[in-house]
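Q: Could you fold this chain for me?
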Amino acid sequence: MVLPALVRSKLAEKVHIKRSLSAEEMEHSLKSMSKAVRRARGGQLSSTVDNWLWKTAEESPQAAVTEENENSGKSGDKVRVDGDRDHLNRRRARVREEKVEREGKWAQKLQRAKEEGNATSVSQST
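A: Sure. Below is the predicted structure, expressed as structure tokens.
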């Protein structure tokens, strides 16, 4: 739940790397394969593996402040507080209202956390 919010605010990004397997990892991989798979591959195993990792975005604090100023609209804009619900049945309309309220609270909590983070980084640098 936190990761999608960090990705939307561009504080985290997904990074692709290729890494070589150690001899220990290759041995473990071969042991975990069935005999049929080992025969099909001819006993050869790829020595590199594709990995996708999450990394914090390297961004200057000044750029983050300008992004906040650009996105400083009503919090309801992001979660569509005033959205049309006439097309929904009663149960779905009720659940949508609860969801919008929950998302609004989450957006406010996230905004406070960002502000506290900026305040602490500013106070630490002085």
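A (continued): Residues 59-126 form one domain.
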